[in-house]
């Protein structure tokens, strides 16, 4: 829910911050609040104000002309320590030529505070951008305009009427490229013009993968050969989720050439000529459109030294806007590893053949971990204490909006970490290139500091709104906290994020006491010690947050995502409404966390999942009294690994238990932060998966649990291109009385055909309404899956399953406990696409597994032969060759002919995409795998298959290995040959 800007919000936020001080959340040097003494007010006008003068008194009638002069005077006043100092910014845009840097000399003294704030009723902007004017038509046929912007910058961002404009780009199919250690070869003759383009070294290949976004600049294009800049290309093809071997994807685009400028809303900057080109959106008049081109990378840099930290500073009611981040412009590119962590420079331990041998990790890659760098914040706080941000807006920024206590490489002051008693209260973060807030570093001093003053501690992130951001760097979280002591993330509203909503922890458990067997096996500890003391990550509170539509683009993420040990930590009272993958994700080494009274609604996969494969120390998790609409939980078993799992409730979104409703009502910003009162808005579909051309009903339900009526309700729906939506009935009419509920529905129809087997798309609905004189907006979204019908082969599911195909590609959406028999039980639960009677005495069955949802480390997808694929639990002659997300490839067969798989051979280190094959010779069967479709490796031995018949069915098979949890499994190039 997004309330309007209001004086009531700012008034209450100011009161809240004051209350936080007196309650001890933020304290002065003596540990308690100090009464304010009379101080000095300095007034500064926006850039270009006619009555402003830096030689004047700095009053309302005769304000200063620049923020730089205001800072100089505030510093002088603070040094006198005669009281609080307040810098008041008048309404308008305050443009900076250089960032404002605050150190100990800018700090409040003797318990006093230096405050930078908006004038009453004003909305001043602090901007690092220049406004672009003087547009003229450049290409009438293409509808492209140009403007002179001067020289000396190569910005990666442009903001048009507050919206994030896209650089000129073209999309590439994976088949358009053949990647190699130096770059790639162009396979599509329609792209032959690339070799003739000017400024080739400014063109970038952007790849959005599973959990990483990767960017590399071109070095040269000659014919069909594209050579990429180094070391960026080496670093982007090194480690995990690499460009040449992602777990999901890739989605490629070429960016930043005038030749790509063909879509409305795109732009290109010619740095040599100092000319900006832009293709307006339909109906956009550039004479009446505000266009902002950022020049600065940072706006505010708060940081001193550990001996003399910056302190007692407060920023209130300001809008911070108009930055870029130029890091990816360098030959390093953006070699992302996870959540804004990047590899830079030549890697000394990278093997010469890393493109082939280290696309899914290797020994040398472990040597890079301790030197990873971080994306910096547009506003930065380090070596600082008692710093407060209240009721500000962070918008149109080129990186992470606010970086607190990150490593030194992410701070312009050169001093990182050391941030304590920091409060971020009631701010708005949206429409920027990176995430909202990043707390903590990732290098050794962040988790085991060499100086105790480096510890990030006592940090409060509360009542903030963070939504629709991370627009360039999709790997960013709304809130990321790596290492901090006594961290509270409370009552924030987080929505529409490509990756996780809240992520806490780093290091994958490798830096925790005793280390991790997984990283012993990988060789990490040849490059760093095994620590015997805990990290600085402890006493974390994630409480009362409202998260909507997270993980809507990337993968291997959760609404709330955890890493590594977090002693004395709590996740309580959070409401997660809609996520593209997991609800609560306890990744490698997550430990010592109490999880209670959370509501996980409309999670696409498990409501809770723990990564316990590979020797991780994940465990000591207490999950009690939670509510979820998805019953599945994996990797967390009561009584195992120190876990407690009890009293968790599965419910329907149409029938919410009272306990869950209480959590929902209490989640998100509270009190005056939450002016709209207890209004519930839910979006649901009667079917979330449909076939091409079919329809589903999407309904928005509004419940008024407050004591005032809702009036002027207006609901609308936004659907993907090619889909259709028609409202059913009259919709919302009249006022909605207290205690009443109303529903508006739409019939949503998928396109008639797709060029992929299944397509996932987000459907969003928006509701506006008024309570008394104030207008509010609620937005909700859900993910719909459309399947292209299966026509060329038969299908069967022993559990609920759906099947699709497009060209040579197939997909199975299925659940299933397992396809296996042992002492724990006999299971034969799967979905299969098959060809009846296709297998004879000498037959080879081959397919490529292109995609697997990680529903469980032992989920399976591959090829099957069986006397009768439709006779689950009984038909003999049964063998499969499958890929798993976490246990490599496996050849499994039914050794006694009772209709259940009971024997296997395996090979580790292989994940999708991978080729699998079954070869039958008489009554003997063998299993093989390949990573390239050419070189094949046998798995286990050739076996005699009991009960095999002269002819058999052959096909594709999948099981999620998680009862009641549907996984999506992709295949291509299925063949049956003699």
From TrEMBL:
User: Could you tell me which residue ranges the Alpha-galactosidase NEW3 domain spans?
Assistant: 692-752
Q: Does the keyword Signal apply?
A: yes
Q: Where is the GH141-like insertion domain?
A: 152-280
Signal peptide residues on this chain, from the entry's feature table: 1-35
Per UniProt, which keywords does this protein have? Signal
**Statement: the UniProt record of this protein carries the keyword Ribosomal protein:** no
Example GO biological process: carbohydrate metabolic process
Classification via InterPro entries: A-galactase_NEW3, GH141_ins, Ig-like_fold, PbH1, Pectin_lyas_fold, Pectin_lyase_fold/virulence, TAT_signal
From the UniProt record, list the coiled-coil ranges. Answer: none
> Pfam families, per this entry?
GH141_M, NPCBM_assoc
Q: What is this protein called?
A: Right-handed parallel beta-helix repeat-containing protein
In which organism is this protein found? Answer: Phytoactinopolyspora mesophila
